[in-house]
User: Fold these one by one.
Assistant:
Number 1:
Amino acid sequence: MSKHADTDPLYQIIRELVQQARQQVQRQVNSAMVHTYWQIGRLIIEHEQQGEQRAAYGKQQLEQLASRLTGEFGKGFDVTNLRNMRRFYQAFPIRETVSTELSWSHYNQLARLENPAARQWYQQEAIQQHWSVRALERQIGTLYYERLLSSREKPTVEAEAQANTLPLADTPKDYLRDPYILDFLNLDTSRYQEADLERGIIQNLQQFLLEMGKGFAFVERQQRIRTDDGDYYIDLVFYNYLLKCFVLIDLKLNKLSHQDVGQMDMYVRLYEEQKRSPDDNPTIGLILCSEHNHTVAQYSVLKDSQQLFASRYLTILPSEEELQRELERERRKIEQQIKEQRGEYRIVQ
């Protein structure tokens, strides 16, 4: 190839045409694969449900079917894949809910989810955010949906009861999660400093944006704010194009303190005065700390604030069971706070 090929207009036009053709073929193949596997899953289910006696021999029949299909079409039709197709149909029995914007590998991950509300939510997010299969697998593995629900100021059970119509993005808080899982930074948990944490985020910005969630775009690191008394530096600045506002992030290694909250409150006020344009919504300040402090959260400007928030981050990916227990503890704390607030309200009344 000539060293000038990349600047040759004819080459560029043909190259783009070939790429578009390949993408179109890939989409057609994916669409055919998804619908074919859905139909195979449906046929297997209907065949198994014809009678109890037939169902009793289902395993043996599936093995025989897999053997014949594999002999003719290859290993894509072994017993494991046929079971995956059957599970795919069981998870998505209505064909119209199966979007060809996702691949078979996406649906193979989604079909493993037992919670229909979570499955539907992950499906929609994967479509809207153009998640790769690997990204979808990570979001499921780190309980993205469950963390969003547990972060809301209402019990998870109450939220899930409304899951079919639940908008997980009503307020700024609904765009944030707790905890954030930053295992991709590969930090030495006993030695890292705030500078290491910040540097790791910048070096893994794409993964951090995925962990942040919907609508976030990176603006600047260590952004300077000038005042008459000196300069201040904000660790990380993002813009959320859905919320239409700046999001300031302050990284803290230790337990959340009143000083951390006061510092972020000042940053937000300065940003509102110096950086925010008339078209922007109010600036959000997010303190990422290694440990929560519910007393500070209850008795500081964090309480009832629509602009200041604090979330915990984890640098090691816990097991699903450990994360579930952690979310359950946080949910109980939120429920207890709500009960206490309601009790205080009744006393005042």
Number 2:
Amino acid sequence: MSRVNRPYVGIPSFLRAPIVEDLAAIDADIAVLGVPFDEGSPFLPGSRMGPRALREHSLRFGTSGIYDPETKKSYLVEEMRDRRIVDCGDVDVQPTNVEATFANITADVKAILASGALPVVLGGDHSITYPIFRALDEPVHVLHFDAHSDYADFDDGLRYTNGHAFRHINALPNKLSLTQIGIRSLRSARPMMEDVETDGNRIIPMGEFRVLGPAGIGALLPKESRVYVSIDVDALDMSLVPGCVSAEPNGMSYAELRDSLKAIAENYQVVAFDFVEVNPPLDVGTGVTAYLGAVTVIEFLGHICAQPRWAARRVRA
């Protein structure tokens, strides 16, 4: 094994992708962006360290593609070999100035979109999904995996916590629909949950999710719908994610989340996605939550890039 491929050697860019500091110079199909921000977390801080931990655990994978022993297929081979994935580093976070940080998030995502690359955003807490989503210049459907609806009302002067993101998104003109999958927290306020559905959105709690299954998630929208996907690590059961401050019982298994994301990749066009709420200071010594997060992002990317529509894009490039 080459020394540079060892997981404790080298600069931890995501999947050892080339680092691009000038977002106007992106020449890639996938651009990873970190948002080390957790000022939207009202309970315990720490998810600001999530992007770094996800990058570090991504170094445990090779540089010649991802092989799945179950499917006997390799994924991301061309993307990694041809350096079609880049790491754009982290958004410039302005401590205690949430609106300035959010403006920087939106600007960076817009720059990635202008380059033609797929934005993959690593959080950070879930408040960041709002400034990411408002960067999109086209109407898309939103698929939101979470234990919580994050649809809190704007009261007590609070507007930008990780519990407000999807109320903001609901008011944006580029939201075609919002479907929240895996919602189950007993800490959810009834008026908030009722607001989600009164506003025309859909909640799929865990009982309904298990009836639908991943295939049902892939049939929620018309084929080839353009979607934004937001994944909170607490969509997974709390036994799997010790490094998550908001973990809840009765969540998804890894296979349920993985297969749902695979169904999304197969049936819809993913225009961007985020992965949030890994909290490394709370994680156990091996960093299993960050590792699970890295696996989730990498597998989802692999399935997105395995589709015929992506292969056609690769040929055009």
Number 3:
Amino acid sequence: MVFASRRDALTGLAATGLAAVIPRSPAMAGEKLASVVINGMPATPSVVMARLIETGALSRFADKAQLKVWRTPDQMRAGVVSGEMAVFGTPSYSCANMRNRGVPVRLMNIVTWGLLYLMSRDDSVQKIEDIAGKPVLMAFRNDAPDLIFRMTLRKLGMNPDTDVKLQYVGTPTEAVQLLLAGRASLAVISEPAATAAQVRGAAAGVTVRRTADLTAVYGRLTGRPPRIAQAGLGVREDFLQANPEVVRAIHEGCVASARWVLDNPAEAGKLGATTLDLAAPVVEKSIPHFRLDVVAAADAKPDLQHYFTALMEMSPDILGGRLPDDAFYWGPAA
């Protein structure tokens, strides 16, 4: 497997000085920014950022605040390296990889602690061990879903390259479409696409089962709680240094917004529908399945290091050859 080729090409821009630098903000002098953009991930955690924007929590720092959702991890990495994305939803390992390869970024927080599921139309598959020898759809090759699935199979004593037949597609939406069309029987899918597969399947008379919760399986195999510090928000160092109060407000807003999402799933579903281009009931039903808990990266450091170490056991290149330095883990007291 090759984990670093695309990342090397992107992060190499930073090493050669080609990455755009965001100018220092007037916020240090008490002036508002013209705009703050949070670049969310195409998954249910972006509902938290949508709520943050809706509450006006950043209005005292910026004339305009908005949420944009990236489509693929490659698009996100390119935007961060170029300087186009200053605050961005990110798999935690991807943010660490970028930092280790010279991109000036830090991890702000963890928002989701596991949102990956084995979805099945195959009645013979009742548990994850039953997939041996079978084809499995997977989106985002060599990125977080693929890596977590491989990590879990290794703990089961299975070789992901020989004991299953991984078939890669571009996005979780593509995996759902193929699964519902009967062109596949098994797929590893993240939220909210996993819920969408069940809801759309039921409407079409197709039963799609949530056969295995990858996070719970990995926890069982390692003797740890069912939590993987999978994804949250990252921030470019230049934006952080120029706007520390804005970054703190974003994190604190995420904490408050997460509580609202958990307490108001129906309203959160409506809010997330436009953001994620899904029906509101799908987003609502997805909320219990993505382990929402906003924790500053500094406080999540032990969990992050455990996850990172497990990934490096597969290949050190996944993290850029080493664990990230201590400064990588942002905290509100920093």
